[in-house]
Amino acid sequence: MKKIQMVDLKSQYLKIKEDVDRGIQEVIDTTSFVKGGKVVEFQQELEKYLGVKHVIPTGNGTDALQIALMGLGLQRGDEVITPTFTFIATAEVVALLGLTPVVVDVDPETFNMSVEAVRKAITPKTKAIVPVHLFGQCADMQALMDLAKEHNLYVVEDACQSIGSKYIFDDGRVCQSGCIGNIGCTSFFPSKNLGCYGDGGAIFTNDDDLAARMRAIANHGMVVRYHHDLIGVNSRLDSIQAAVLQAKLPHLDEYIAARQSAAAYYDKAFAGNPHITTPYRDPKSTHVFHQYTLKLSGVDRNAVQAQLKEKGIPAMIYYPVPLHLQKAYQDPRYKQGDFPVAEELCATVLSLPMHTELDEEQLKYITDAVLEAVNQ
Ligand SMILES: *Cc1c(COP(=O)(O)O)cnc(C)c1O
């Protein structure tokens, strides 16, 4: 049996090696390393795939989020609502910009931001909501967009884990995740569903003015060369990463299908086990399984993880600590017990290996080992 990894990028690479190698070689041959033709080509290919007007490539997903908030022109003290159960970057950029992160609890089934909690957290200072499409399934965008409209708020989607996931509105309209709010952000970190071989990210928007502002901000606030109209940053996708992404984008749907099929295998194997809750499927969203995350009950989650490790099966805890209990984010407004769903998830979730190259032999080995560990 092939060694089991959380993510198997090597096997994936071997299947597209020729395309990747050729793309990288072309970048080297043309020495067009930054702002090269491949970045523009990839940008346009991604715009087409997503059906969005503007894709703005960035250096990574965290920069994408930061540039998005800068593009909205928020002021110090403005409040931005984020879920407390997410990767730190979502709130980090809010804090870095001197904005006030307001955290809310999540839904126990979807793990995504609770719309009721967002409603309660809105104050006159609230300017934006940042839903995270956690583990690859869209947050309740219909309700969040309605709420944002009602209170005149911006919506910046953190789609770093959800590229290719589709949201279905009540009226049947289908939208790609990241292309629903005013702005969407994604990451091309290697382990993400569309990952490059280093760092990369992108911003999505259908708003021409916002796109122009954010494109300038990502480039030192420059519109005309050496004339700086805005305070910006330096954040760009490099051409070699664009070449890798160009080779991978045509396979994204097939990668998603492979993840969904591994998830279906897991679901079936764990069905009915009293200790395991398998990932909830929201009928309003497709799930692209950036992670396949179980909730365990009546067992010692950490002991299960250790037992799997002994058998050569990596399993990860995403995430062990919610934002409001992180040292750097201590805030007198929040204390332990304030967000019980997120706190409970941090204590009970376990993510299993999930990637495009899992085979049946590996899946059987993993599911047998998980069942043995929880049934003891
Ligand atoms: C990965 C990730 C980010 C940050 O992306 P980087 O490219 O690593 O900066 C932000 N938010 C979420 C939810 C993520 O998973």
UniProtKB/TrEMBL annotation:
CDD domains according to UniProt: AHBA_syn
N6-(pyridoxal phosphate)lysine carried by residues: 192
Pfam families: DegT_DnrJ_EryC1
InterPro entries found in the cross-reference section: DegT/StrS_aminotransferase, PyrdxlP-dep_Trfase, PyrdxlP-dep_Trfase_major, PyrdxlP-dep_Trfase_small
Keywords: Aminotransferase, Pyridoxal phosphate, Transferase
Residues annotated as catalytic: 192
GO annotation, biological process: polysaccharide biosynthetic process
Gene Ontology molecular function: pyridoxal phosphate binding; transaminase activity
Official protein name in the record: DegT/DnrJ/EryC1/StrS family aminotransferase
Family: Belongs to the DegT/DnrJ/EryC1 family.
